[in-house]
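Weekly puzzle thread! Below is a chain. First person to post its structure in token form gets bragging rights.
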Amino acid sequence: MAGAGCEVHYFDPSVREAHVQKGKGYWHHRISIDWRDPNPAIAAQQQPTATKKLGVIMDQFGHRKIDVLKADLESAEWKILENLILENVIEEIGQLVFAIHLHWPGFEVSGGDNDVVRYWYSLLKELELTGFKLFWSYKNINKPQIFLQKQVFNASSSYVLSWVNTQWGLH
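Winning reply:
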């Protein structure tokens, strides 16, 4: 994408340097996207990686819109998606490509299976109400066939879902 002239930012807490330009229009950042602000009771030097909400990162980089957000957040996607919706950051994203994990509820998601499924559904429904339309899905057949810690035939614990914001550019 950077080779096609797009500005690309890659966030991964395991990269060595805090911020490094890897090529024209392509940067790596040692930042983890989170759904909450860092805990002020924990000194920054004691936190294993810098964690920030996407809206904060956008402000720091001077970005008002994101054309494409592609993320695999290792089960934090549900809370991060909730944060993007609640803080209206979702409206500033043109296309959203998320890996979703269904083998357990995810971080800070509680309740019984019915509650978890309702929570997941409410986030997906809110995406739709915000103008996002699902246009592509991929079931990772290499992942275990587990849904909420139960074996499920012909399912996967991981999917990639892609949405386009049909309201993009209208705000």
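Puzzle host: Confirmed. Bonus trivia for everyone else. The helical segments are 54-61, 77-86, 113-129.
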